[in-house]
Amino acid sequence: MFKTTLSLALLFGASTAAFAQENLAPQYNVQEPAVSDPSIKPTAPTTPIITDDEHLYETFGGREGLTALMDDAMARWLQNPKTRPFFENADQARIKALLVEQFCVIMHGPCTYSGRTMAEAHRGMNVKEGNFYGLVEELQVAMNKRHIPFRAQNRLIAALAPMHRDIIDK
Predict the structure, then answer these.
(1) Domain with 102 in it: what CATH number?
(2) Is 150 within 8 Å of 12 (Cβ atoms)?
(3) Across 125-137, average pLDDT
(4) CA 141, CA 79: separation in Å to the nearest integer?
(5) In this structure, is residue 38 part of a structural domain?
(6) Does 90 score more than 90 pLDDT?
(7) Domain count across the chain
(8) Is 36 helix (H, G, I), strand (E, B) or coil?
(9) Is residue 77, in this structure, part of any structural domain at all?
(10) How far apart are alpha carbons 90 and 155 in whole angstroms?
(11) Model pTM?
(12) CA-to-CA separations, 60 to 70, 91, 100, 119, in angstroms, rounded
């Protein structure tokens, strides 16, 4: 419970900036996905590289580990009533593949992200804070199940946190 609370605090608390400043490597020049609709203005990068430590990618098990993590997370998202509506009629295989790519790039792994920005991908989905929190909690359960160290989990969560502004509908 404490770990989940701390990570959720990192997601929305002022401590996110401090955590990132203290624990994350400088940003790399990574190609962000183009936005095809000029009315969409992303507020956070979709692929912020969080480390120059090649061991973080390995800590998550490389591409195979990220794929297994997304398989676990998707199964959990489909079971959770807060997240199920967003995934049950979606192309789950494509979503998992894009998340593997996104997480791989974020961890400075040998990948390229081929998806859309978070603002464009979630436009009109009516995602509320409770839905978002449910997704993060299930992702954390899946990471715990895969024995990913808490520090590595928080590095990923801290990189994903700013994206909430592009995902949650106000």
Answers:
(1) 1.10.490.10
(2) no
(3) 94
(4) 13
(5) no
(6) yes
(7) 1
(8) coil
(9) yes
(10) 28
(11) 0.76
(12) 11, 24, 11, 26
